[in-house]
Design goal:
Blueprint: H1 7-23, H2 26-33, H3 41-51, H4 69-82, H5 88-102, H6 105-117, E1 122-125, H7 131-134, H8 143-146, E2 155-160, E3 163-174, E4 181-188, E5 195-202, E6 208-212, E7 222-234, H9 244-280, E8 282-283, E9 286-287, H10 292-317, H11 322-343, H12 345-348, H13 355-369, H14 372-382, H15 395-399
Parallel strand pairs: 1-4
Antiparallel strand pairs: 2-3, 3-7, 4-5, 5-7, 6-7, 8-9
Helix pairs in contact: 1-4, 4-9, 4-10, 5-6, 5-9, 9-10, 9-11, 9-13, 10-11, 11-13, 11-14
Amino acid sequence: MDAAFTAEQDEMRRTLREILAKRCGPDEVKAAVRTAAGHDRELWQQLSRQLGLPGIAVAEEYGGVGCAPGDLALACEETGRALLPSPLLATAVLAAPLVTALGTAAQRSGLLPPLAAGELTAALAVPGPALAAALALTGDNAPGDWAGGGRAGGVQARRTDDGWRLYGEVPQVLDGHSAGLLLVAAHTGGFARSRTLLFLVREGAPGLVRDRQTTLDETRPQGRVQLRDVEAELLGTEDGQADPLPALAATGRRAAAVLAAEAVGAADRALARTVEYVRQREQFGRAVGSFQAVKHRLADLYVQVQAARSAAYYAAWDPEQGGLALAQALEALRTTAGEAIQLHGGIGFTWEHDAHLYFKRAAADELLFGPVHRLRAHAAHHAGLFDPSATPATPERAAV
């Protein structure tokens, strides 16, 4: 395997970093998240037209760039450095792969081109705060563990003469307040024969009520979605829709690799800003960064970030390792962001300081996609490390 980046990948990263350096500084991020959409629409269109960012991993036949999911992860490392608020995660990482995997030929040809062009944004709505469970990041995604139960809770779907109708509420949906298309997980078949399927709900559908929620990390805007007897379209065919659970799990593995790269980019930038600060800040007549204790702390952070980067790059090549890479990257981001606040001293503890943007991202991502210990536990279980049929080593065998 050749682990070196191609010239095209290097050029994409360089161009994206230059655009974000000009258009996505801390002040611009704070201004963008306070808009109604929660992101800079003009910048999103520029990234879509100039780089084809939302269509990087979409096939060329549907108007995408046709690159591998690993290329999307490399791009998201750069968006993570800038903490870019955008519909990229919800649209390109979560929704587009599900449309590709489960949609009919007509649905793919009708939805993927506008998604790839950035003209349409999408969001995945699963009941309750259960996104990590639905994507099989913290356990097997059996519907009973996250979909709200067949008798009550979650979102219910019923078949009528005119099509499908949905009713229920999803309180936390990434970009759910602004997405033009919702992919909603809903129960069908009543309690005894309950089954979870995915449905398409268009913006402006009668009975669809959405509002933006207050979140810890404003760069990850979330909305509450209420479905009051809303007309919906089944994702897939009426007679032979594939089980969406394997598709959700596959999407989760790829999403974990992308999120790991994004977290590594954020951690790397937080560390770089901290190193720059301690070189300039003086205490007792010398730069803070010249003290041996500070050097040791920064060196430990550097090693942790580089280890997380290696894991994220490997997961971009092999998404089966995505959960473990995500755990390592989230832990590196949380540690680096916390140390950034500490090493910035008194100014770092003020809530308005830029270091808190990274700390909030670390905390919010672990709430959405973790926690870290459950990501690792599921990866260990998946690898068979805790197979109950295995014979535990006795003290004598361990000594040998």
